[in-house]
TrEMBL record:
Name used for this protein in its record: Class F sortase
A UniProt-annotated Pfam family: Sortase
Residue ranges crossing the lipid bilayer per the database entry: none
Native source species: Streptomyces phaeoluteigriseus
KW Hydrolase (keyword) present: yes
Biological classification of the source: Bacteria, Bacillati, Actinomycetota, Actinomycetes, Kitasatosporales
Entry keyword annotation includes Hydrolase: yes
Length: 202
C-alpha cells in the first residue's frame, strides 16, 4: 500500500474512483494503448522529494499550463473532480503523494467542460512515451517527469491497482475521460503514467 491514507485508497477503490470520470482491473485495448517506453533510471536527480502540494502543472507537448487545485473525496467515497468552470484547472488528489514523493501522485482533469468547451486535459491522449511533464510545488521546488505509457481503458475495467497501488519510486498519474460519448458520459478513461526524472531546487 502507498504511504498515503489507506482508508482513502480503499474508499476510492470501492466506490468507482472518479465521480463522472472513472471506472474500477486492467483491460486495455491495443488500438488505443501506446507501448511502454524504457523507464528512465531515477538516479540522483530522481530521488524522492519532501511533501509539498503542486500549484502548477505544465505539459508542453499538448499545451497545458494550468494552476492545480486540491481534491478530496465526495460524500459517497468517490474521488472529487475539479469544478466545471470556464477557467478549467487540473486537480491533485490530496490523499495521494505529492509530485516527487515516493508513490503515485494522482492528478485529474476534464476532457470537456460543457458549454465552456475543451477541458484542460482535452489532448491528454496525444501524449507519447518520453514526453515531459513538470509540476511546480508549493515550496518552490519543481518535479520533472517523463511519460512511460498512455492507456485508454473502459470505465468498468479501470485499473485501480495500477493507478493507486504502491510503487517504490516517485511516479505520476494523469486521468481524464475519453472514448465515445454516450449520453452525458464518456465510455473510457485516459490514463498517463510517468516517472520522476529530475527535481529542481527552489
Amino acid at each position: 500500500m502507498s504511504p498515503y491514507s489507506r482508508r482513502a485508497f480503499l474508499t476510492a477503490a470501492g466506490a468507482g474512483l472518479l465521480a463522472g470520470c472513472a471506472g474500477g482491473g486492467p483491460a486495455d485495448r491495443a488500438a488505443s494503448t501506446t507501448p511502454p517506453a524504457p523507464v528512465p533510471s531515477p538516479g540522483r536527480a530522481g530521488r524522492p522529494l519532501e511533501r509539498s502540494a503542486p500549484v502548477v502543472l505544465r505539459i508542453p507537448a499538448i499545451g497545458v499550463d494550468t494552476p492545480v487545485v486540491r481534491l478530496g473525496l465526495e460524500a459517497d467515497g468517490s474521488v472529487e473532480v475539479p469544478a466545471v468552470t470556464a477557467d478549467d484547472r487540473a486537480g491533485w488528489y490530496r490523499y495521494s503523494p505529492t509530485p516527487g514523493q515516493r508513490g503515485p501522485s494522482v492528478l485529474l482533469g476534464h476532457v470537456t467542460v460543457g458549454k465552456y468547451g475543451d477541458g484542460v486535459f482535452r489532448r491528454l491522449d496525444r501524449l507519447r512515451p518520453g514526453d515531459g511533464i513538470t509540476a511546480r510545488l508549493e515550496n518552490g521546488t519543481t518535479a520533472e517527469f517523463a511519460v512511460t505509457a498512455v492507456r485508454t481503458v473502459g470505465k468498468k475495467e479501470f485499473p485501480t491497482a495500477d493507478v493507486y497501488g504502491n510503487v517504490n519510486r516517485p511516479e505520476l498519474r494523469l486521468i481524464t475521460c475519453g472514448g465515445p460519448l454516450t449520453g452525458d458520459e464518456y465510455r473510457d478513461n485516459v490514463i498517463v503514467f510517468a516517472v520522476l526524472t529530475r527535481a529542481g531546487e527552489r
